[in-house]
Amino acid sequence: MQHIHSYRPAGEISDPPVDVVTLPHDLRHLRRKLLHLSNGDMVMLDLKEAVLFHHGDRLVLENGDTVEVQAAPEKLFEVKARDPLHLIELAWHLGNRHLSAQIEEGRILILRDHVIRSMLQGLGATVTDIEEPFQPARGAYHAHGGHDHGSHGHHAHD
Length: 158
Description:
Layout: E1 2-8, E2 19-23, E3 29-36, E4 42-52, E5 58-61, E6 66-71, E7 73-80, H1 84-96, E8 101-103, E9 108-111, H2 114-122, E10 126-133
Parallel strand pairs: 1-4, 2-6
Antiparallel strand pairs: 1-5, 3-4, 5-6, 7-9, 7-10, 8-9
């Protein structure tokens, strides 16, 4: 079984990966874990500190090959607003409830919750059931041990 001790951010490696590992958002914050690849093989991830992986990041195997991390499709609500200010107001209400959210220019994605759906609809939002990869924004309390695509200094331990 091969081991993984390093990784690279999405887009940094252009060679195709030898395989992929598909994980939902809540299982992409990893330090040490046995990972099951799509071809049935297993690899041991063993990093010095926990990392929040994003869709497209690469795990580097001992032999130099890479495995791509893919975000698994998840059951979500797509929240749309009347206008940009309304979207900001909806984001505030979700943040006030400490909900994980993927905030984009024209929509917000959240995990499905019928109580939150009712609240959002009561606030005038359009809420649609969708299924797609989920990459929620991490708040200030999740910054330590995170994954900053703007800084590659924490990859020096390769």
